[in-house]
Design a protein that fits this description.
It comes from Chlorobium luteolum (strain DSM 273 / BCRC 81028 / 2530). The chain is α/β, with parallel strands linked by helices. It is built from eight helices and eight strands, in the order E-H-E-H-H-E-H-E-H-H-E-E-H-E-E-H.
Amino acid sequence: MVVTMSAQVSQPVLIVPGVLFWDSLYQGMRLALSERVPLERIEIAPVSLGDWIGFPPSPERSTNRVMKVIDRSLKRMAERFPGEKVTIVAHSGGGTVAMVYLLEKPFQGDCYHRGEQVSRLITLGTPFRTHEQYAKLKTDFIDRHLTPGFFRRCRVVSVVSDKYRGSPAGSLTEKMCHLFYRSTWGDGNASGDGIVPAESCRLEGAKNVIIPDAEHLPTPHTRWYGTNEGVRQWAGWLDSDGPEEHPPALK
């Protein structure tokens, strides 16, 4: 379903890159969102590949490093837009990092307190249930600390595409999806965005939304969440009341 993007919203937006992705990959998403939000009110958290990997490699600390970048970005936005609430748009594993940050509980020794500055978190292809080792550090933490009260101060919209079905006996694409979905979810016979199965993105208490035609990876010549076509399918959730035509919720 395509959401009309004729009206603009004024709330500033902070884009958070996904795991192993960096800020420059999201310039296209920033431009696509500028159909709805003035470009000067959209920032990309300056996350680098080094933030995810660490030197020497320490992926178990990646969440802490990226939370630090998010905090600096929100501080800068508070200076630029004093008193205004911010919407965070986070891709893939960046969504769980943002959630850990917003919970304002100590995570591996780090805790931040800018949650009141953020009124909405939109996640794109973010698995909140996973078997992957480093991702589970975040999802287990979220499971322990997320309460119904959190959603009263911060609306969460979990968006995922179900474009691709995984099958061990299907096409090459279906076989690859089966492998990715199985590594995340344990069951490869699922539908998702080519990397993440849709069902793993379900978050109790959030607005869970499926869009029909987006891919996970921000690579050239794909219709991923950050292209014009991808953004039009979920950008209506930037509004406080959701898009003019609501995409179907996960069943």
